[in-house]
Amino acid sequence: MTKTTKGRQWRSLDKDLKRISQLEYAAQYTSRPLVGMGIALAFIVIAALVAAIFFGSTPTSFVVVMAAAFGAYMAINIGANDVANNMGPAVGANALTMGGAIAIAAIFESAGAMLAGGDVVSTISKGIIDPSGFSEVRVFVWAMMAALISSALWVNLATWIGAPVSTTHSVVGGVMGAGIAAAGFAAVNWPTMGKIAASWVISPVLGGVIAALFLAFIKVKIVYQDDKIAAAKRWVPVLVGIMAAAFGTYLAIKGFKRIIKIDLVTALMIGALVGGAAYAISAPLIAKQARGLENRTKSLKTLFGLPLIFSAAMLSFAHGANDVANAVGPLAAIVHAESVGDFAAKVPIPVWVMVIGAFGITFGLVLFGPKLIRMVGSQITKLNPMRAYCVALSAAITVIVASWLGLPVSSTHIAVGGVFGVGFYREWHMERRLRNNVAKRPDAKRLGAEERRRRKLVRRSHFMTIVAAWVITVPAAAILSSVIFFILNSVVG
């Protein structure tokens, strides 16, 4: 055999091996979603088995096992969709890697759910439905089951299309739709529904306004100062103290309710003490970190990095403490109804049910969360540590204001509204600077309408998709829930 023939054979072999390796890479790429779905399915099966262990000897165990499976499915979807709102800004600002964000969120979401998650939850979703309107326990159980299934399906669909929606509002819509189907329109507490509808507007607008105001404050007091580093050493600890005060107040109201009930005034005092301590601790640390930094805007981003990570972690803790009930509330209602043969507006949540919620949120975040994290963090508008910190700060403060006003707000709407607020403020600020430049220099080149549209800093397509998803969440979940209730009640019941 000649050298030429051997060379051709080796080249052919190399090409074949390259094709095989490309096929392997393609197979790995296409199988990734299947791996995630496989793990999620395994968790759902395990949740059902856990329920079977606790209720295996009762004649109604099948209903509880089915509810546990759908509760696990709902928790996975909350992790895939809702958690992105807390971690998205930090990832988009490059303060955290995707892996770091997922690890922190998984730890603090689970800790919030297990340590500070309320042991008594309004399983009828904040008084949406009057339990006395149900004719019998079985009807109530199928209503809660329908609410659980419909809200999980809706959040799953929203995650698939890339829209961060409110899981709270999904559950509210599901409970409302099932309640209407089971007991008629009179069973719905319409004043409460009116408050929730108002929160659709108030939550994002308030979050956006507060975020924009803090960004304007940072620009005036720090970015536009001659000595940026000295201004940062003065004001960054103040902003850290405000954040700590907000979280201290929130946790005093929500986190310790299992031990002691704290009124808003006392919670504000606790928050003020926590904020003062955070200021005293952070001031020397920020001063030390600022040594040797150049007097330019890019250096300021370094000083906001660590506070942003802490704020993202605390937002995850607060979210786990508050929103795990969306997954396990209806499940707890079903477990209670099947255990005692009666239903109530408020029931204790068993530990095993809380564990399903906490682990489900973690699995959903790890397996399916990166898509929404990227969308919230970088695809709506460009974020840096300062802008992302304003979003986190507005989220914490808005929750406190909403609690004071008694409004059932959505953490999703607040956080995403904060991102929009920062983006729209940047657009307004850019337009203002362009107008000032034209006023100072009349001969300066004016931008055409097409170029102005191209320079918009908030993606209008994402804005319209998200707002549309927010508007239709409650009615879509309600309609889906009513259909599922009729199917369950007629086929299974």
From TrEMBL:
<dbReference type="InterPro" id="IPR001204">
    <property type="entry name" value="Phos_transporter"/>
</dbReference>
<feature type="transmembrane region" description="Helical">
    <location>
        <begin position="302"/>
        <end position="321"/>
    </location>
</feature>
<feature type="transmembrane region" description="Helical">
    <location>
        <begin position="61"/>
        <end position="80"/>
    </location>
</feature>
<keyword id="KW-0592">Phosphate transport</keyword>
<feature type="transmembrane region" description="Helical">
    <location>
        <begin position="196"/>
        <end position="215"/>
    </location>
</feature>
<dbReference type="Pfam" id="PF01384">
    <property type="entry name" value="PHO4"/>
</dbReference>
<feature type="transmembrane region" description="Helical">
    <location>
        <begin position="171"/>
        <end position="190"/>
    </location>
</feature>
<feature type="transmembrane region" description="Helical">
    <location>
        <begin position="349"/>
        <end position="368"/>
    </location>
</feature>
<keyword id="KW-0813">Transport</keyword>
<keyword id="KW-0472">Membrane</keyword>
<protein>
    <recommendedName>
        <fullName>Phosphate transporter</fullName>
    </recommendedName>
</protein>
<feature type="transmembrane region" description="Helical">
    <location>
        <begin position="87"/>
        <end position="108"/>
    </location>
</feature>
<feature type="transmembrane region" description="Helical">
    <location>
        <begin position="139"/>
        <end position="159"/>
    </location>
</feature>
<feature type="transmembrane region" description="Helical">
    <location>
        <begin position="388"/>
        <end position="405"/>
    </location>
</feature>
<feature type="transmembrane region" description="Helical">
    <location>
        <begin position="463"/>
        <end position="488"/>
    </location>
</feature>
<feature type="transmembrane region" description="Helical">
    <location>
        <begin position="259"/>
        <end position="281"/>
    </location>
</feature>
<feature type="transmembrane region" description="Helical">
    <location>
        <begin position="235"/>
        <end position="253"/>
    </location>
</feature>
<keyword id="KW-1133">Transmembrane helix</keyword>
<comment type="similarity">
    <text>Belongs to the inorganic phosphate transporter (PiT) (TC 2.A.20) family.</text>
</comment>
<feature type="transmembrane region" description="Helical">
    <location>
        <begin position="34"/>
        <end position="55"/>
    </location>
</feature>
<keyword id="KW-0812">Transmembrane</keyword>
<feature type="transmembrane region" description="Helical">
    <location>
        <begin position="411"/>
        <end position="428"/>
    </location>
</feature>
